[in-house]
Amino acid sequence: MVTAAVAVTLLAGCGAGSAAPETSGSSSAGGASGDTLVVYTNSNGEGRGEWLTKKAAEAGFKIEIVGAGGADATNKLIAEKNNPIADVAFGLNNMYFAQVKAADAIEAYKPAWADEVDASLADSDDEKAYWPLVKQAIMLGYNSDRITSEQAPKDWTDLWSKDEFRTRYERVTGLGTATAQLVFAGILSRYRDDSGDLGISDEGWKQVEQYFQNGSPAVAKTDLFARIASGEVDMGQMPSSIVAEREKSFKVSVETVLPSVGVPLAVEQVALVKGTDKKEQAQKFIDWFGSADVQGEWAQQFNSMPVNKGAAAKAKPEVVEFFDGLKQQDIDWNFVQQNMGAWVEKIELEYMT
Amino acid sequence: MSGTSAKSMLRSPFVIIVGTVLTWFIAAFLVWPNANVLIETFFPGGNFSGRAAEKLFSSQRAMKSLGNSFLLAVALSITVNVVGIFIVLVTHYFRIRGSRILFLGYATTFIYGGIVLAAGYKFIYGEKGIVTAFLLNVFPGMEPGWFSGFFAVLAVMTFATTTNHMLFVANALKGVDYQTIEAARNLGASTWTILRRIVLPMLKPTLFAVTILSFLTGLGALSAPQVLGGRDFQTITPMILTFTNSPTSRDLAALLAVILGVATILMLAVMSRLEKGGTYFSVSKVSSALQKQKIANPAANVAVHAAAYLLFAVYTLPVVLIVLFSFADGAAIQTGHLSLDSLTMDNYVRVLTQPSGLRPFVISVVYSAVAAVIAVGGLLFVARILQKHKNWVTAMFEYLLHIPWILPSALLALGLIISYDHPNPLVGGAVLTGTTVILLIAFVTVKIPFTLRMLKASFASVNSSLEEAAAIMGAKTLYVFRRILLPLVLPAAAAIAALNFNSMLDDYDTAIFLAHPLVQPLGLVIKANTDGAEGVDGVSNTFVYTVLLMVITGLTMYLVYGRSGGRGRSKGRKPLAAPGTVAATVSPSPARTG
To answer: Domain spanning B50-325: which superfamily?
Structure first.
């Protein structure tokens, strides 16, 4: 038995030994990560993380990407504020970064490319702590093989107010994702009423109630496009960037609705983590990453819509065209940020079924 | 096994050393971090906020989901025992044709679980499933969506969680004295009477322990209700997870978690009470190993065989389909259409040729192995003391060690961060965040309650007369522990370590908050490659990772448990040896396998 314990420890030791050199090699400079910049992001999937690590190395930055969902990355940044591990964070949208900033976990910094972006998309304070990189539109998409553009809904509210759509749209079963939160930000903002519950009129909450009383609940691990392909539903929420690729994978055609009030835009941002011991290096990295060249290549590679005006020229023409024809919904983000937590709670507790 | 007073217990140096280490560990890693996170949650800004209770109790959805979770927990405690005891008897007690094959089928739950398991069942019984298609041919009027709601969730979770029965109840069954059974039969007792009056009572401590685990599994159900629950049967866990992630609603998450935690602790107290005072080891002077029983009644024999093979099919079909689907593209998986010519190696090539390569696998294997060994190694001493000395001090320690069952792992992780992001005297003035140690600590603590329950149950079935004999002959405490007790509980300990190891391999909830940025375990890589928003490849990657994990966990189970279990099962090799020796001979050291 003792031999068992010893041998298991040895086995563990061997494993640890084999992993250790790689670790100690990069941490010899001291601190948790030596001269490696630790970058938190929720935008590392589909090869983005690997692509960025490689490009950064070519530009002389040694980075380590730590991927996490938007909410997880936000909570992690806030929890670690007393002894930060990350140096830079990017990819989180303005709602998430507003929370991180309120917890005092990021630091104001003006990147070299600050003049090349629309500052109204950045942190709304004068001392801006986060800066915009990529625009993403939150759309209502429908199966255009089954529904013509004349028959299609004209706005989100048609989904539950018109009989023909009531059972044909996919509704969310949780408000944990950024996309779902933005859809509700877009709907509730229209019913702002300072005397109403959480700043929203009764009429607004009635819309939410209707949304959940109708619709077909989303199915875990089954993509909306898979359900559209099999005919279970015809429409649902989607971020603009995924449409082209999923249409191909699931062999469906999807068109998006352009409501007269416009569509909500999620803007992915970048920020310097407060208290990093590699501040200068981190700032240089932000200057490099947000530059027109790098954002242009990123847009080319991942079909995104860059905020940097110089980068837009390099983005895919169809993406640029799509955003040119898009009316942005006028949303008071300060109002949304202050209330989103309470809205999510109310919706989860009272309206979801 | 009689209770000893707290005072007399403290005369043993063994107890004092273990007690000191334990007190420090509990204070530093169980009480302090979790107290911090709960205080921050319930007393924001120093004032108590009762808002959480008010909000929750007025929410219809929260109350209904909570009720569903409890319903599932109670139902599962019963159904898992029924199915679990049946498959243990079929593989280990009755003489059934092909019992080794059956064992392999039932053992599939050792190696996979979670969302993919639920998806596997959906491929078979869901609206477009194979069995549904067949049934629709036979009964054209049938509702294609029949497999959904409470019944479907309960069925899937029952078949998915018999792992503990297969490992621990089967192990306890081996300790049942065959001579007692023979004596009963000679006195004219029927198969059923022997089972009910002799065999099952001996299994009680283990059955109590696995019942608590089933209850807990039901309370924490997440993926099966999400996939199969439909509109009417959703549970509370998804809501807890959403609220944990939202700083302004975290008090609701904590309150819900505490409600579930208190229910678990109550269950624990009830089970401890039921367990008290029984004798769960063989009292005969010369006990002998179990021999398989023939079912005398031919009709019953046929029925049991039929049921056993039907269950075998239920257990194995999802695994076969998951492996097949892991070679299909993501669209095929999600629409449920499988055509044999569309199966390719593409998914495996994509997953295995990522730049990070095998590194995350190695990191996770090392972390999980070290954590599993520390948890089981350390708690062997603790479980022994808690089992031997029963007084208010040990009772208190025992309840404290169950703290990790109360809070969701994300909150445990946040507690560790806010407690150790600055030099803290509890850990010698060190800062733990940003180190590789903090994740190890979290892994060990999360596994403590399960490890303790199962170890305590296996100590309970050790015949105390062996130990007394050794003590009378002058053996020291440690010697008795090492030479008499350890060999007896080692099969169970190895199985616990293996299960702990398997369950930590793909951990995400803890690692996401605590992993060192340069030493990222597999769970984070899996998440990055499988999240819903990651395109169609995400779903096929989920299946590939599941199959890869099945390979690793299957290998672990085979190395640590399978070989010895198989040999010990096939025939009682030394029919006349004392139970201790039998257990010792069937338990090769797990070390040899490494």
So the answer is: MetI-like (1.10.3720.10)
